[in-house]
Every structure is written in structure tokens, then in C-alpha cells.
Amino acid sequence: MRRRAILLLFPLVLLAFLGVSRPAMAEAPRLSLMHGPVEQSLFVLWAQTRGAGRVAVRYHPEADPARLRQLERLTSEEGDFTAVLRLAGLEPGTAYRYRVSVDGTEAAEGGFRTRPLWQYRTDPPEATLAFGSCSYLNDRFDRPGTPWGGEYGIFDAIAAIRPDAMLWLGDNVYLREPEWTSLEGMSARYRAYREEPALAGLWRGTHHYATWDDHDFGPNDADGSFIHKGASLEAFRRYWPNPAHGLPGVPGVFTQFSLADAEVFVLDDRWYRYPNDYPRVPAKRLYGAAQLEWLKQALLSSRATFRIVAAGTQFWNRVSRFESFQNYPDEARELLDWITERRIPGVVFLSGDRHFSQLLRLERPGTYPLHEFTSSPLTGGVATNPGDNERTNPDLVDGTLLTQRSFGMLRLSGPKAARVLALEAYDAAGRLLWKRELKAAELR
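User: That's the sequence. What structure does it adopt?
Assistant: C-alpha cells below.
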């Protein structure tokens, strides 16, 4: 036994003699990081420690290390050891570097760039937004049979394109039966995604915004009657530091953010949802009166060239047999009539959920057509046979139906007088599958 102990100690003695320390991960606290929203003078860094600790971030302009600032937050079990660090008072259009430590031990470093101040000065900048839905990780709670998730390399493929932001369109995590009955269970599922090695590069490779759909809200097809939706909202707020989570007195996860001359209005399709099978009476709502009124006012007051409306549920798919907005005809008609009657320009829709991707074009007599880009799934199972009704959908744009794992991209470009919004679909390896362009002048 003594000889074995000496042999086991020998490598450590040799490493010490050579000046090499033991592996850092054996001593350093576990830390997960994600880049949250960024503005012209603000950057949000989300962090999670393995246990209670003091998280400190030191940051400075990349070109001026002497302008060093520091911000600290404590993590605790009550908040699932998460912290949101809001780095404010930053310079627009500036590259920054940061270092993060936990209880005094350096744990990570990285960088980011604030949004440029272009208004009243230059043409709008070019910008890109990646988006997708249905992100499934296989684990011990999988149903029996062939694993449902796969092609996790899609996350690195998104990061490699270096989009300015990533919008998660629901089913961002998949809560399982043992998890959706408690805040602790929901938090454990979120934590598994933040610690997943396949996602590490993406979490810090761009800036993240999110809404939810049924599987990260509760059970399959969960609606506003879900008794644990308060816990769902608390878990979402812990893990997604969106610019806002609903409005004062109007709970939910709906929010809004800007990217160059586009504004993105992100809806909550679960908190106020009536059951899918509820009778089709005027009272039946998907988004609820208060949220829909917010959206109508926000669209009307916006001065953005492109006004992107996003949700997990499809909006205008008239052949869908599932959870489409079309199952809530009175509310859907109210929104469509508002956009048409108020002549709101530049409106484009994004959605997820369906486990296939497509671009729909909804013609409107007397005005421009509405486009809806559905992107799904990221790593979830693929609907390889969506049905003849989907393939022959009269609103389907030819060549855009995809029955494979994929992600979408919006690309803003061109001078102010001739802005273009490119819609792009990529496969799990990051290869461009199709591209369609919408000119701002055509959306008026």
C-alpha cells in the first residue's frame, strides 16, 4: 500500500517540481455565463455559481485598460445561485473586455461590443438576428426508445456566424414530468442547459433574448390554467434576463428590443392562453386583452423600418391543425384588422413550435403581404412528414419548407432610403439552405 501511495503521489510531485499546478477545474468554482441584452450604454451578464458565492466582474474598454470598473453580486440558494450583472454607463459602439471571479478566484474572461449610436448621424448599421425553437437535450428522463434530440453541433454553427443577437422562440428547454410540478425541478432543467458543454460557445457568442412555448412553460400544450405557471414565470425570470418581463400589473414574459432600425416585439403565448379545445367564442384568447393592446400600441408608436412580431405559436398558418393563432379567430382578426386599418408598415412575423420550418406569405388586398418565418427545431425531433396540407399550403413560399434541424437568420442591410431585410435558413452544420429578401419599400 505504501508503494502504491508513493506512485500515486509521484505525478503531483513532478508537476510541482516543473512549476505546473493541478488542473484549474479541480480548484476553481464552477461558473456558467451567458451574454444577455446589450444596448448603447448597457450590457447584461448572467452568471450562475455551483454554490453560494460572490461574483465580481472587472471590465474596461478594450482600447483603454486603465478605465477599469468592477461590479459585484452575491449568489444564494434562494435564487438558484444566479446573478444578473448590469454593466451600465458604457460608451456606445465600443468593444469591452471583462474578467469574472468567484470568491476572489478568477473563473472566466470575455468580451462584448455595445450597440453603435447611429440615430441622426449615419445610415442604420448592418445587423443580424439568429432565431430558432425546440431545443431538446437527451437525458435520464427521456421516454423509452430512440433518443429524440440530436445534432447539438447546431449551437456552434450559430455561434460561428457571429449574429448580433439570438432570439429563442420557445421550447428552449424541455421540462419533463418530474420537473414541471415545482420551481426546484424547473430550475434544475434550466441549469442543465446552462451547463451543457455543447451550448457553452453560444451562451457567450452573442446576446440572448427569449420567450417561451408549452414545454418550457409546463406540460405539452399547457395553457393559462396551468396551476404552476407562477413557478414557470419565476424560473424564466431567473434564467432569461430580458429587457422586461411583461408590464406592471400585466404578468408574463412579453418584451421588446431593438436591433439597428428593427424593433422586435416578443409575445407570451402561454400565460393568457385559453385551452385549445375551448369553444370558439369571442372570449377565447391566446394573448389576452392587455397584452394584445400593448402590442397594438407598440406597433403604432414604433418608428422602426421593420417591426418584427415574434412568438412560439404560429400566427397565420390557415391549414394548421395544431396550436396556431387561427384557433383563436376573433383575436387573430382583431390584430390583423389593426395592422391593416392603421396602415402599419414593415411588419414581419417569426414563430417556432412546429418541428419543421417554412416561410408563409399572407396576401392582403390593397396593401402589402405579411410574411411569417417559422423556424423549428434546433435539436428536437423533426417532423419529417408534416402532411400534404402543409406541402400544398397556398400561402407557402416555394422552396422554403424544411424537414430537418435548422435555424433562421434575419439580416438587415442597405442605406436608410433602401433598407433590405433578408430572411435566411441554415442547416445544423451552418450551411445556407434558402434566402429571400424583403425590401422596406415593399412593406408599406
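Confidence is low (pLDDT under 50) at residues 1-29.
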